Amino acid sequence: MNGLVLSMDEIINAVCLHMASRKGVRPSEVQVELSWDEDTGYTAEVWVQGRSQYLVEANLMEAILRYLETEYGIRAYREEVRLELDEEIIAVVRR
């Protein structure tokens, strides 16, 4: 496999699944808003049970790597995944 691109929706799904697992709630109970800023880079604001939490890029990568393994059966390493800003935020996986 040469590469894979995860859409913004898939990144949001990855974060929802990851946070649901960590917080012991259903993925449908997690809301995620991804963003990019020149100062902070890629971040996400996550709402679980009415509480807001900010995730930095390292947290997003942890969720994406877990998603790649559970949904695609791909054991990727951090250095193989890069977040990019196209018309939306995407994750490019190099294999």
UniProtKB/TrEMBL annotation:
Q: What is this protein called?
A: DUF2653 family protein
Naturally occurring in which organism (per UniProt) = Paenibacillus spiritus
User: Record's InterPro entries?
Assistant: Uncharacterised_YxcD (IPR020516)
